Structures are given as structure tokens and as C-alpha cells.
Amino acid sequence: MSKARIMLIDNEEGLCRMMEAILKDSGYQTKSYTRPVQAVADFTAGTYDLVITDIKMPEMDGIEVLKHIRGRDPEIPVIVITAFATVELSIDALRQGAYDMLTKPFEPDELLYRVKNALQHQQLVDENRELKEELSGRFCFDNIIGTSDPLQQLLGKVAKVAVRDTSALITGESGTGKELIAQAIHYNSPRAKSRFVALNCGALPGNILESELFGYRKGAFTGADEDRRGLLEEANGGTLFLDEVGNLPMNIQMTLLRFLQEHEFMRLGEREPTRVDVRIISATNSDLQAAVNKGEFREDLFYRLNVINLHLPPLRQRKEDIPLLINHFIGEQNKKFGTEIKGLTPEALAAAREYPWPGNIRQLRNVIEAAITLTTDSYIGLPTLAQFIEVDENVKPISDSDYASALANFETEYLKRLLSKHGSNVEAAAAEAGMNMATIYRKLKKHGIDKGSID
User: Fold this and answer.
1) CA 449/CA 443 separation, integer angstroms
2) Fewer CB near the last or first residue (10 Å), C or N of the chain?
3) Are 164 and 157 within 8 A, CB to CB?
């Protein structure tokens, strides 16, 4: 691995110079330190690919150096050098995370061999971790996966809406992921530490819906054996998501409107109002404006809910996102059932990309799950996919380079948004993404992103 960056730490200046010369002659970038305290002070995650440190040093011994280095970058390999390789010392070093131990004196070839092994091992670890992160959907905005222009424009709007505590109406066809957008707003808002509560307004009869939403007092109706808080109270301090809001009966629409105006409501059977602090986000796959025109939905409530409108594009308008979504869903199924499906064949992937997906992302997820159940190969082929959707066998296969390019664009945009959100603070960005800082730095280098130039 040429041009790998190596930190050398040894209080013997002659040994440092010798190792530096050997490694530089083999194409490695090196920086040497004779004072371990200074080396530890200068070390930051992602700056180096390997650390080589002596054990016996004044000021700070190699085990302490190892603890500090691994504390900042848990993934970086560290080779320790010692003239006294006891069993106890070896065990202690390995427990603290050392990758290898090199005993003095050593030949140049042995040093190069150990360095090469450590770097190759780390490369495999990095690749494996990156693959797992991709399959688990880490490179996404609250699990919203895609690089297409329509989706990116929407996510840009979502990021702005999230920090403004106002009502939002999410529109889009069934199965496009409207609840994920609502969650994205909540978890990127000042209310993120409080509850996100969802209610499907089309799944319950009107009388039950009213009691679920507002709660009731004991004795308010037959079967009301105790006081019960409604979902508005459950969401106090957080967000209430009303899915399929167009199905709300007129009487509940009126009560909801009063809440949006006054921030208070009355439980069934009560005479005193209850005040709560809740943000309302709603969603619909129907034309609410048409419902208003027909007198089926209150106009004043419509404008209260539709302060901000977020329209989620259907999957057929996001074709470039389909390979990424398929990869994500296959990863989910592999993790859930212990399977090892690697993907779709190029022909099947091309057919999936061209299919209109009337059921959108929900349909795509179900088809992938069903196809994995039936396939006996490592890749899902066109015949298997054709059992669930109509396919065009004449479509041009999608190449691996096309997919790799889409994934690279996805990662780049995600990292830029993440760093912009946190003012280029890599530690904060890594914490939100669920990655260590070293992974962030490696990906910035991989995609040529200068964190200092991000607004």
C-alpha cells in the first residue's frame, strides 16, 4: 500500500531515522517523534493509517501511547516495538488494542513485512465496515435513501423546515415514505429528544379515533373504566404525525382546528381544557384541496395544516435511487434472515429500474423480500423478479460502474449535508452518523471533500 501515512514514535533518534528511511524508500509517508507526549498531542483520527511506537520511553511509555491513540481512533492499527518481549507485556499490549509486536533488533525486511500486513488487514477491516454501513443504510438522512434531484431538493427543504416549529403537510402517493419524512423533520428539530407519535387517521372508526387522539375521562362512555390520555398528550413536547389526515371526520376536524389555534383541547367527558406543546405534521395521498372544494374537508383546517407543503416524488421519478434502495432492502433481509444475497443480476436490476412501481417504495421492499425467499442463487435473476412484476427483457443491463457512481454521489452529498449541519465539526458529524471519526476522515479523502470549504 503506497502513500500510506505512518507515525513513528521512539525516543532513540537514530532508530527513528532508520525506520523513516526504510519506510520512505518503500513509498510510505512518515512522520517521526522522539517525544511521545508531543506525538500524542499531535495525533488526530484519520490523519494516519498506522502508528509504530516503542514501549520503553521517558515521559510516557508505549502502552500509554497506545491507550491514547486507540482512544481517539479505535480502528487504527498500532505496532509496538520492544527489546524485552515478555509474555505479560505482549498480553497487556494486545489487550490495549495493539495489532502486532516487533522485537529489537529487527531487519528492514521484517519491519516492512509487519507494516504491509497491518495496512492490508486495516484495509480489509475498512472495506468490511463500509459495506456493512452501506447495507444498513447509514448513508442516508434518517433512512431516506437516494441521490436523485427530486429527492435531494425535498431533503434540502426538509432540513430548513425541521428547525422551524410550524405545521407541515406531506403529500405524495401511497408507499412513497411520507412517515420517514415526518420522522426526519422531528429528529432534526429541537423536539428530537421528545416523542414522535404517529396515528393513521384512516385505520380507525370516527368514535375510536376521537378517543385515541384526545383521550377521555372515566365514565365518558360505556367501557370508559378509567381516565386515559390521548395521543396529543402522549406527544407533549414532541411531534404528532397524522397520516391520511384527509380521513378525519368533520367533528374531529373542528376539534383539531381549535387545538391548532389555542394549543388546548378537552378530553371526552371533561369540561376543563388540557394544554400541551405539540407540533403537528400531517400527510395525505389524496387531493385535500379537491376535498375542500367538495366540502369534505374544512378549508380553515387545511390552511392550518398546510403552512409548509412537502411533496414526496413517486419512485418512478427517482429511477437512479432504485439500485440504492434495492441494495438497502437486500441488506435488511440478509441481516434479518442470515442470508447472503449479493444483489440483482444486471438484467434484473435494469428491469427493476425501468418498472414504474405503482406501489412505490413499499412495493419495492415487498418484492425484494419475496424474491429473496424464492431465489436459490447469490443474485436475484430476471426470471425470479418476473414472478412479481412485469419486466422488459430487452432493457439494457446496468453496469457495476453505474451503481458505484450512484453510491459515490450518495455518500458525497450525505457527508456534505452532515458537515454543513454541524459546522464542519467531524466529531459531531460522526456521532450523528453512527460512525467513528476515522471513517469520516477516510471517506472525505476518498471523495475529495474539503471540510474547510463547506458552508
Assistant:
1) 8
2) C
3) no
Helices (H), 306-380: 322-337, 346-354, 360-374
Rg of the chain (C-alpha set): 29
Same domain, 20 and 128: yes
Which residues are CB-contacts of 163 (< 8 A; sequence separation ≥ 6)? 188, 189, 190
pLDDT tens readout for residues 213-265:
988 877 667 676 777 888 999 999 999 999 999 999 999 999 999 999 999 98
Q: DSSP alpha helices (H): ranges in 26-104?
A: 36-42, 62-72, 87-95
Determine contact, residues 304/294, Cβ cutoff 8 Å: no
Taking each helix axis as running N to C, give the angle between helix 322-337 and helix 400-421, from 0 to 180 degrees, rounded to the nearest 10. 90
Q: Give residue 397's pLDDT.
A: 62
Residue listed under C-alpha cell 372508526: 205
Greater model confidence, 396 or 108 = 108
Distances (CA, A) of 58 to 35, 54, 62: 8, 11, 10
Decide if 116 is inside a domain.
yes
pLDDT of residue 135: 40
Whether the bond into 105 is cis, omega within 30 of 0: yes
Please name the residues in contact with 454: beta carbons below 8 A apart, sequence gap of 6 or more.
416, 419, 420, 424
The answer on 295 and 381 residing in a single domain is no
Tell me the CA distances in angstroms from 404 to 34, 134, 398, 399, 407, one per residue in order.
43, 12, 11, 9, 5
**Does some domain include residue 223?**
yes
| C-alpha span between 350 and 393 (Å, rounded) | 9
List the grid coordinates of 326: 434495492
CATH of the domain at 360: 1.10.8.60
